[in-house]
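To: structure subgroup
Subject: Chain for Friday's discussion

All,

I'm putting the inputs and outputs inline so they're searchable in the archive.
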Amino acid sequence: MKVRKSWRWLVGAGITAIVVGLGAWAGLRLYSISQSNSLDPIRRWFNDPASRPTLTTVMNGQACPGAPFILPSDGFIGLLWNDSAGPYTVLNTHSGIDIFGDGAPGTVPIYAAYEGYLTRLNDWLSSVIIRHEDPLQPGRTIWTYYTHMASRDGSQSYVVPQYPPGTSEQPVEQGALLGYQGEYSGGRGLVGLHLHFSIVLSDANGTFTNQDRIVNTLDPSPYLGMAVNIADLPVRPIRCSG
């Protein structure tokens, strides 16, 4: 009898813990969504292609007035820096901006946001990173990171041939063609056609840090001259500030 009661108690406690955990997760998700205005325009972008021109930021390689960086790709600036919209939460926010292009995979161009020195590691199928002297804080080294430049199944890279895997410290000019938007997620689930772009800090040795962590990245807003920090809750399409 005691064994049966103990077993039932353990089962009940386990079920209670699961229910409490699911409730906490649901609460976290709802709170995270409430801190962002990105999901509605993202849904419109994918569910109503006719609305895409009204959501798109087109700069044609021109910088906003007074901004050092150009927007690296024209398109819908969907997820923003520090964004908690799904699949992210307030505990794990988005570390850059996602620019969704309107076109077929491998056709929407991506350009260097600023002059610098490009590296592509040997195992990078869809990514490149560029080292810069920070134009807003001279003497500091920062990096711009560009990824998802490959087909969904990983069979084809959309990085231009000038920057093969193993490229290190290759000089590039602002506006240099880097590749084209793709749908490659590296096994992290399905993603729509887009570019993920982030500004990454250096470590003590001057090497780029892990760009997936928000603490290792900078708000791109002052570099682009656009409000791309989710704290500003900007209306899409995002235009030059001021």
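Points worth raising on Friday:
The mean pLDDT is 91.
The chain has two domains: 1-34, 38-232.

D.
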